[in-house]
Amino acid sequence: MKRILAIMLVLGIMLTSVTAMARAEVFSDISGHWAKSTIEKMADLGIVKGVGDGMFLPDREIKRSEFVVALHKVAEIEINYFKAPDINEFYSDVKNEDWYASPLYDMASLNIVDDRGKFRPNDLITREEMVHYLVNTYKYKLNAVLGDFDGEVGYFDDEESIKEQYKNSVKYAYKLGFVKGRGNGKFVPEGLSTRAEAMIVLEKLMQSLKEDVKDAVEVTPSFVKDKDGYKMTLTIKNSGKNEVVIIHGSGQKYDFVLLDDKKEEVYRWSEGKSFTMILTETHIPSGKTVEFSEVIDAKTYEEISGKVYYFKA
User: Fold this and answer.
1) Of the candidates 112, 147, 171, 173, which has an alpha carbon nearest to the alpha carbon of residue 250?
2) Greatest extent of the chain over all pairs of C-alpha atoms, in Å
3) Any alpha helices (H) in the chain, and if so which ranges?
């Protein structure tokens, strides 16, 4: 049987703490700056580097490519591919040899960076773009589906100027404490973000992930042959001290998907099935494990086996 790479959108991945034994870089231009401690912390963690000559330039605007690379590091995303990724699958204005191409490919393949066609790597990132990628990362790390807000919630006086595709992200970022306005109750969605501001929001995301995800939850997918066909399993183990509660947006608590070498679906377990549209919960007490599993019969699998490269739980 063809080897299948198991990949998953995990419920939780602990954001590893790194203790810096020595200052990675000393910047001569941040003394007295309001973001000094955060800049030093993020530099020590390897999230960001200076611009040379001992300078950080905290008030210089940050490029889209620079922010995405820093966000990739905060999210600690690591993907192993069967073949060398080609960034042109997503963007026509990026080359594979560009210094940011590899992390950008990861972020695009996970739909964290969900622009397509042109990435505009050297453009300065706007506040609404930055927040959108930030919230997409949060959703990915927690495997969370954040629903739409009903109507305008009045967080910012200039909500109407926020692009439609970014409105929910901005509202959730405000709700989660990732961002604040720039005075006078305004968000200024098309305003540019400085390097210092980027470090602040990345630190907030990092702290939120540490608090929300923890290191107590282990999520493991498996795909093995059994007597009835092929068993697809998603196992969730709670090794922490507190109960873990998973809130499901509907009666469908899980799904299993088989993908081809281009990561296009060839089989989805839930296809054609009906589920109640009510919130449900799964409670996992401390020290306990839950397992979700389904079997794809041998006949069905044999019909598609030549196409299957990936398994997603």
Assistant:
1) 147
2) 68
3) 36-44, 64-75, 101-109, 127-142, 167-175, 195-213, 298-304
Q: Tell me: the pLDDT tens digits for 251-272?
A: 778 888 888 877 788 888 877 7
Give the DSSP per-residue string, 261-306.
TTS-EEEETTTT-----S-EEEEE-TT-EEEEEEEEEHHHHHHHGG
How do beta strands 5-7 and 310-312 pair?
Answer: parallel
**CATH architecture of the domain formed by 216-312:** Sandwich (2.60)
Domain with CATH 2.60.40.2360 in the chain: 216-312
Q: Nearest to residue 54, comparing CAs of 25, 34, 20, 31?
A: 25
Q: Nearest Cα to 311, choosing from 223, 244, 213? A: 223
Q: Take residue 252 and report the two structure tokens written for it.
A: 């469908």
Question: What global pTM score does this model have?
Answer: 0.64
- C-beta separation of 172 from 135 below 8 A: yes
User: What would the two tokens of residue 309 be?
Assistant: 């490269």
The first and second tokens of residue 76, run together, are: 């600690």
Residue 55: how many other CB atoms lie within 10 Å: 14
| Beta strand pairing call for 265-268 and 244-248 | unpaired
Q: CA geometry: angle at 143 spanning 48 and 65, to 5°?
A: 30
